Amino acid sequence: MSEPKKTHLYNQHVALDAKMIEFSGWLMPVNYEGIIEEHEAVRENVGLFDVSHMGEVRIEGKEATAFLQYLFTNDLSLIENGHVQYGMMCYENGTVVDDLLIYKYHTESYLLVINAGNIEKDVAWITEKAADFDVRINPISDVLSEVALQGPNAEALLQSLSDEDIKEIGFFQFREDIHINGTPFLVSRTGYTGEDGFEIYGSHEAIKMLWDYLLEKGEPYHIKPCGLGARDTLRFEVALPLYGHEISDSISPLEAGLGFFVKLNKENFIGKAALEKQKEKGIAQKIVGFEMSKGIPRHGYEVFDGNEAIGYVTTGYYSPTLKKNIGLALINATFAKMGNTIEIQVRKKRMPATIISKKFYQKQYKK
Length: 367
Fold this sequence. Notes:
alpha+beta, Gyrase A, domain 2, Alpha-Beta Plaits, Elongation Factor Tu (Ef-tu), domain 3, six-stranded mixed β-sheet, six-stranded antiparallel β-barrel, globular
């Protein structure tokens, strides 16, 4: 086993007494003060996350758009330069290679942001599929670091540190000329928490400066450094998928309820035929939300209807915002009806749960 990698903010995390864990091959902070305190900071004020473990790939060339349209489930012709789009790369059978963000500089230049645990696999997949296209593939994860500034105070804090008009960066838009403390950064109005906020990219040294600077200048905005624990509870409350949980190489975007990001009306893309067939035939399994009055559901717990095993929990937590035990589960579509009672195998005991909307918490994006 190889040693886990460290981001360039590792020493900052240790100095803040972060609890470190291994995640997707990286040594990352799971929490500093506590998951609930950090979760609430993002919902109520502003939180700062190190997300430098994420991967980045530049795609450039005459056929960059044609290639990405073939690779990607969403439709890049629907967005303008300076905008960001979410979608997936699928295998030919319709299951998911990875979900990702694509930043569109122009029709011959894009930035892909991919999941930390999938970097090697994704780059190999992208490179293989690019063979018949006039494009250049340039993995740049090794030269970039990234932080996420999330929460209702994120815009005010960022604006207090920059002469550029931060309000001009609309939802799922980006600019690469935002100067903070004299240093330019790529800033997008994106995130993984359900709150307004920004993801900020720069060189390793620039991001180290920015981390310290944001924590120092953010005190009047009640900023807290936040770890992966809060990142997971925050994304889960707004039903944002996590690779390996709600989507994977055995779960399709349609089964995950992400059909909005799959444009079956565009020209051919990898997995399109399989997804069309799945939609036509009827989706056999679905991700549903559920609530429990007792017991906390965890990833992998089996789901039952009577004595019939019908699926498993993909993510489950005590919700810090809702003060309830809630979860997401992949179950047989026959049982996926609102209000249905199911049972979750919590260790040696089956406990009742009720199927509810996956929209546990209303997203607070600024559109």
